Amino acid sequence: MTVRDALNSALDEEMSADPKVFLMGEEVGEYQGAYKISKGLLDKYGPERVLDTPITEAGFTGIGVGAAYHGLKPVIEFMTFNFSMQAIDHIINSAAKSNYMSAGQMSVPIVFRGPNGAAAGVGAQHSHCYASWYASCPGLKVLAPYSSEDARGLLKAAIRDPDPVVFLENELLYGETFPVSAEVLDSSFCVPIGKAKIEREGKDVTITAFSKMVGYALKAAEILAKEGISAEVINLRSIRPLDRDTINASVRKTNRLVTVEEGFPQHGVGAEICASVVEESFGYLDAPVERIAGADVPMPYAANLERLAVPQVEDIVRAAKRACYRSVPMAAAA
Amino acid sequence: MGILRQKFWTSSSSRPSSLSSIFIPAGIHEDHSTPHVFPFNSTGVSTRYSLQRFKSTQASNQLEQLYSTDDDDHDNSQALDFPGGKVTYIPEMRFLSESSGKRVPCYRVLNENGEIITGSDYEQLSEEVSVKIYSIMVSLQMMDTVFYEAQRQGRISFYLTSAGEEAINIASAAALSADDIILPQYREPGILLWRGFTIQEFANQCFGNKDDYGKGRQMPIHYGSKKHNFVTISSPIATQLPQAVGIAYSLKMDRKDACVVTYTGDGGTSEGDFHAALNFSAVTEAPVVFICRNNGWAISTHISEQFRSDGIVVRGRAYGIRSIRVDGNDVLAVYSAIHAAREMAISEQRPVLVEALSYRVGHHSTSDDSTKYRPVDEIVYWKMERNPVNRFRKWVERNGWWSEEKESELRNSVKKQLLQAIQVAEQTEKPPLEDLFSDVYDIRPPNLREQEKQLRETIYRHPQDYPSHVPL
Question: Domain Dehydrogenase E1 component: where (chain B) (predicted)?
Answer without folding.
Answer: 135-432
